[in-house]
Amino acid sequence: KIESVKAREIFDSRGNPTIEVDVQLNDGALGRASVPSGASTGDREVVELRDGGSRLRGKGVLKAVNNVNGPIRKKMIGESPYDQHHIDQLLIELDGTPTKKNLGANAILGVSLAVCRAAALTERMPLYRYLGGVDCELPRPFFNVINGGKHADSGIDIQEFLITPIGFDHFREGLESIDNTYHKLKSILADKALVTSVGDEGGFAPHLGSSEEAIETLIEAITKSGYQPGKDIAIAIDPASSEFYKNGTYHFEGKQLSSEEMIRYYQQLIQKYPIISIEDGLSEHDWESWVPLTKQLGKKVQLIGDDIFVTNPAIFSEGIKKGIANSILIKLNQIGTISETIETIKKARRAGYTTMISHRSGETEDTFIADFAVAMGAGQIKTGAMARTERVSKYNQFLRIEEELGQDTIMTPFPFKENLSHPSL
Ligand code: PGA
Ligand code: ZN
């Protein structure tokens, strides 16, 4: 039974306040969880409750903390921690709004996660097992190695350039290959007298002229590390294009492009480079154009919806009906409870969409998403580069899980192989 619930204000990786929740059970088990925060958020994400005013730039979360320590605590005391769906339903009902704006989705998610962790602890089960992981596979890691957009002042419009170990079966060897590439990239940038300081997600933020230059530099790093681009390591991008979509056009690299021109741009990019995945290629306010985007590129590459679906089962259902995208990014704090997130993942599976679990650009040391990705058999995860402990901690958790599962455990095979050169893939 839940004996106590207590929240506090802590700080995230950008030095902004966020919420941490402790849930204690009557046998003493203490589940602790903290909540991340995005910068390039989707407009239809649930509400992250902030205090406003002048304290901590208006970003304080004391209102959310008080909501946990007051009404939520009252509701949770005495409840069983094992029925996650029931717990989440109580939280949703107590809030009473579709956007979770009364209690704050940050308050709600903190409790949802902490209850789950307490239940796993009292059962003496690893979190990924408690969450249902039986015949486990590890997700393929996507390292965000060059940061642009809202995550860095690199002047590059595409927010994320990622690399993934496409030609490897096992997590550790895959991770080693992209770690080598990340370090090679650093020395290549240094040789070109470009800055090697990192952005919010641990990727470098060099002042490069264009996105193509960023991709070329990545290919150089892959090759010089002894790997074959498109065979061993492939590239993914997250333009986060909602951020540069204004008045119906994409303000991209000094030009104003229509949706058709953006699609053509991506078409050229994937012809030229071993790009296997494009996230938020078009804006969350450009639903109609996602149809031709999906028709034209969806057979060749993974098209992930992040801002457009915001992990929301109802919004995602509309997208499935319209046949847009073929993959969905999963961020727990976009929807606010574990069970709604699982509902979205199940929908994806039924509709044949792939899933990628994701960190946020503002993170904490909490590694919940690592266990969650394994338990869900999510297939893919992006949680930054091999820098900044709030990113590395997630990758380290996968190494522990891999060790526990045994070295035969594989990473889920990547299904979009048409844009890869390796004949055996
Ligand atoms: P965010 O960005 O966490 O700043 O929203 C991540 C993403 O767009 O995938
Ligand atoms: Zn994104």
From TrEMBL:
PROSITE patterns: ENOLASE. Residues 2-131 form the Enolase N-terminal domain. Its cofactor is Mg(2+). Its EC number is 4.2.1.11. It is an enzyme of class 4 (lyase). Residues 135-419 form the Enolase C-terminal TIM barrel domain. The active site is at E201, K331. Catalyzes the reversible conversion of 2-phosphoglycerate (2-PG) into phosphoenolpyruvate (PEP). It is essential for the degradation of carbohydrates via glycolysis. Belongs to the enolase family. This is Enolase. The lineage of its organism: Bacteria, Bacillati, Bacillota, Bacilli, Bacillales.
